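Work Package 3 committed the consortium to producing structural models of liganded targets before the mid-term review. Because experimental data for this complex are still outstanding, the team generated a predictive model from sequence and the ligand definition alone, so that downstream docking and mutagenesis planning could proceed in parallel. The input record is reproduced below exactly as it was submitted to the modelling pipeline, together with the SMILES string for S-adenosylmethionine.
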Amino acid sequence: MDKSNLSNTVANLPFSQACENNKDAILAVLQKELKDSTHVFEIGSGTGQHSVYFASQLPHLKWQTSDVVANHATINAWHDAYPAPNLYQPLAFDLAHNLLPVNTVVKMPYDAIFTANTLHIISWSLVEKLFELVSEVLPLHGKLIVYGPFNENSRYTSESNRQFDTMLRQGNSGSGIRNKEDVIDLATQHDLTLSATHRMPANNQLLVFRKTAPTP
Ligand SMILES: C[S@@+](CC[C@H](N)C(=O)[O-])C[C@H]1O[C@@H](n2cnc3c(N)ncnc32)[C@H](O)[C@@H]1O
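The resulting structure, written out as C-alpha cells with the ligand in place, is given here.
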C-alpha cells in the first residue's frame, strides 16, 4: 500500500511505514503458521494497518484487534477505509490494567494471539504479564506469534538494532530490545513452548510459541 494511493481519510491519519515494509514478509509466515487457526487476538494493533491487511489476506481467520483506547480512532478509521467481514473493531486492552477481555474470550475462543513490535516498547513487567495472560487464554496447542527485534545471548544482532535500542532506552527507561533467551524462558514458565523461529527482513524475528500441557 503506497500512501500516495490511499483515500484522503486514511492519508490524513497516522501511518506506519514500517508496517507497510514488513507486512508481506509477516503475511508469508502467518499463511503457514495460522493455516489451521480460526480466531486471532492481536495485542497492540497500533495504527490498524496490519489488521486490515492480514484479515483481508487470511479470510479463514476472525481477526480481533485490541490496543489502548488512545489508538482506537485510528484503528477504526483504517477498518472503515478497508473493511473486511472477518475484521473486528478494537477492544480496549491495556496490559497495565486489564485482563484479556473475558466476554470476548467466551464469545470468540482465541486459538492464536499475534503481537508485533510490542515487547520492546512495554516494560519487562508487562512482558511478563502478557505471557501470563496469553497462557491463561490459549487452549492446548494454541499459538502465540511475536514479531520484532530480539537480542541473542544478550548481544545485538545488528548495528541498526543497537542504535534502535539506544533510542528506545533514551525515550523510556522501561523499553528496550529483549533478549530472546529471556523471552523463551519466560514463555516456558507459562507452558508456552517455542515451536519456530523465523528470521525476518531488517534484523527482525518472528517467534512462534505453542501452548503445551503444564509439566506436573
Ligand atoms: C511500536 S507499536 C506497534 C504497533 C503495531 N503492532 C505495529 O507493528 O506497527 C507498540 C504498540 O504497543 C501498544 N502498547 C503500548 N503499551 C501497551 C500496553 N500497556 N498494553 C497494550 N498495548 C500497549 C501501543 O499502543 C502500540 O500500539
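Reviewers should note the following from the model. The first helix runs from residue 8 to 11. These observations will guide the Year 2 experiments.
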